[in-house]
Amino acid sequence: MAQVDLEVNGRAYRMLCEDGQEGRLRELAAYVDGRLRHLTGGGKSGSDAQMLLMTCLVMADELQELLTGRGVVPVSVVEQAEVVAGLDRVTKRIEEVAVRLERA
């Protein structure tokens, strides 16, 4: 078992995980920390336990909506723009390959 040090809402936590999963655990902790800061506006709006519980409830609600096909987890405008740009690149590449295939 590996140990990994995480930080959520300015507090340090040491967690155990399977060997090789340290990076993924850090990514998940960073995601939870970001969601918590977004939901609380970056300030204290209760005890750490209350803020973490609120964050978990919001994330569980989003997951439930995704699992039942009722909603989509919101993404930022920057993330949306990155997805659109990526899709445009893939579309152009597919069109280039199609042109080459037509010539062959």
TrEMBL record:
Keywords: Cell cycle, Cell division, Cytoplasm, Septation. InterPro entries: Cell_div_ZapA-like (IPR007838), Cell_div_ZapA-like_sf (IPR036192), Cell_div_ZapA_N (IPR042233). Activator of cell division through the inhibition of FtsZ GTPase activity, therefore promoting FtsZ assembly into bundles of protofilaments necessary for the formation of the division Z ring. It is recruited early at mid-cell but it is not essential for cell division. It comes from Azospirillum griseum. GO terms for biological process: division septum assembly; FtsZ-dependent cytokinesis; septin ring assembly. Its main location: cytoplasm. PANTHER family: CELL DIVISION PROTEIN ZAPA. It is found in: Cytoplasm. This is Cell division protein ZapA. Pfam families: ZapA. It comes from the Bacteria. The keyword rRNA processing does not apply. GO terms for cellular component: cell division site; cell septum; cytosol. Homodimer. Interacts with FtsZ.
